Amino acid sequence: MEVLMPPPQIYVERTLALIKPDIVDKEEEIEDIILKSGFTIVQRRKLRFSPEQCSNFYVEQYGKMFFPNLTAYMSSGPLVAMILARHNAISYWLDLMGPFNSFKAKETHPDSLRAIYGTDDLRNALHGSKNFAAAEREIRFMFPEVIIEPIPIGGAAKDYLNMYVNPTLLAGLSELCKHKPADPFIWLADWLLKNNPNKPRFCHQQDTVEESNENKTH
């Protein structure tokens, strides 16, 4: 019996997490919870916001009644910034934190981090990016050296192009010139599908099990 083995398609999402100034002394136990919840801490740094930096980071909240208190709170001491990664990292981190208001978190989500470490509607212990756009902006703000998207062609990506993509295209175009089909676009598309160097390979079920067991040992 032959089994089709498709390559794994796993998208790893990233989000920004902040441990706020009043609970920085709890960073080790919070990071332990984060790791046990399936996240990878890609990068971390401890820093202190100036009021101006705080205003720039929370620019979307500018003009709201609580904004002066927020900037004063977030610039009152050091904080820990982390890039967290896992599948659906943004939504998982938001769920793990719980409701924004710590009072509500204690009532409705007593096991959430904000219920455990937060003290009121402002001092809610932690921050997380609310969506993909916010995550990208906030990660760049805290870690300006980090490459998010687009990833420039270089290193492994360049090697992949040189080893697989370019030779395959060259071979396909050479065959196209030899055959001179009536519809060259359809012909080339079909040829590329048949000659894709990364197409799923067929293997015997026994081989699949053995490879799976072997992979577990690495």
From TrEMBL:
Cellular localisation: Cytoplasm, Cytoskeleton, Flagellum axoneme
InterPro entries: Dpy-30_motif, NDK-like_dom, NDK-like_dom_sf, NDK_H5, Nucleoside_diP_kinase
GO molecular function list: 3'-5'-DNA exonuclease activity; nucleoside diphosphate kinase activity
SMART domains: NDK
Any Pfam family the entry gives: Dpy-30
Record keywords: Cell projection, Cilium, Cytoplasm, Cytoskeleton, Developmental protein, Differentiation, Flagellum, Hydrolase, Spermatogenesis
Any one cellular-component term (Gene Ontology): radial spoke
Single Gene Ontology BP annotation: cilium assembly
Residues covered by the Nucleoside diphosphate kinase-like domain: 12-150
Location, primary (coarse class): cytoplasm
Family listed: Belongs to the NDK family.
Subunit composition and interactions: Component of the axonemal radial spoke complex 1 (RS1), at least composed of spoke head proteins RSPH1, RSPH3, RSPH9 and the cilia-specific component RSPH4A or sperm-specific component RSPH6A, spoke stalk proteins RSPH14, DNAJB13, DYDC1, ROPN1L and NME5, and the anchor protein IQUB. Interacts with IQUB.
Protein name per the record: Nucleoside diphosphate kinase homolog 5
Organism: Sarcophilus harrisii (Tasmanian devil)
Lineage: Eukaryota, Metazoa, Chordata, Craniata, Vertebrata
Gene it is expressed from: NME5
